[in-house]
């Protein structure tokens, strides 16, 4: 009984740490995005839409938005040297 009470806090910390590590490895890429995966700074490739698992602290995912961005440009008067 005494051994279990000493081991229980360590076990709880370990379980919480594993849950946090798993949550940090989940990445979601939307339909209009692509995820570029870097492993230790090197490009490993692009991933399409979906749910992906990465290796925390080793891999990094950067999301790139593929949507077309439109801007309204106001009319301007051009001054030329003609």
Can you list the strand order of the major beta sheet? Answer: 3-2-5
End-to-end separation in angstroms reads: 96 Å
What is the global morphology?
A: elongated
The total tally of domains equals: 1
Strand content: 25-35%
What's the order of the H and E elements? HEEEEE
Total strands:
5
Structural class by sheet pairing and helices: alpha+beta
Low-confidence stretches: none
Mean pLDDT: 90
Structure in words:
This protein has 82 residues and is an alpha+beta fold. The protein has one domain. The protein has one helix and five strands. The protein has one helix at 2-24, and strands at residues 26-29, 33-39, 42-47, 50-53, 59-65. The chain has a three-stranded antiparallel beta sheet with strand order 3-2-5, with no helix packed on it. The protein has a two-stranded antiparallel sheet with strand order 1-4. Strand 2 (33-39) and strand 3 (42-47) form a beta hairpin. The longest helix has 23 residues, at 2-24. The protein is elongated and about 95 Å long.
Task: Note the topology.
Elements: H1 2-24, E1 26-29, E2 33-39, E3 42-47, E4 50-53, E5 59-65
Antiparallel strand pairs: 1-4, 2-3, 2-5
List keywords for this structure.
single chain; 82 residues; alpha+beta; three-stranded antiparallel β-sheet; two-stranded antiparallel sheet; 34% strand; elongated
Question: TL;DR?
Answer:
By secondary structure, the protein is α+β, with helices and mostly antiparallel strands. The protein has one domain.
């Amino acid at each position: 009984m005494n051994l279990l009470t000493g081991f229980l806090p360590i076990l709880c910390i370990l379980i919480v740490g594993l849950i946090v590590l798993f949550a940090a490895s989940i990445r979601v890429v939307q339909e209009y995005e692509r995820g570029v995966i870097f492993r230790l700074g090197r490009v490993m490739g692009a991933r399409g839409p979906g749910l992906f698992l990465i290796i925390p602290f080793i891999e990094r995912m950067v999301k790139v938005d593929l949507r077309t961005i439109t801007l309204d440009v106001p009319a301007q008067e051009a001054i030329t040297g003609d």
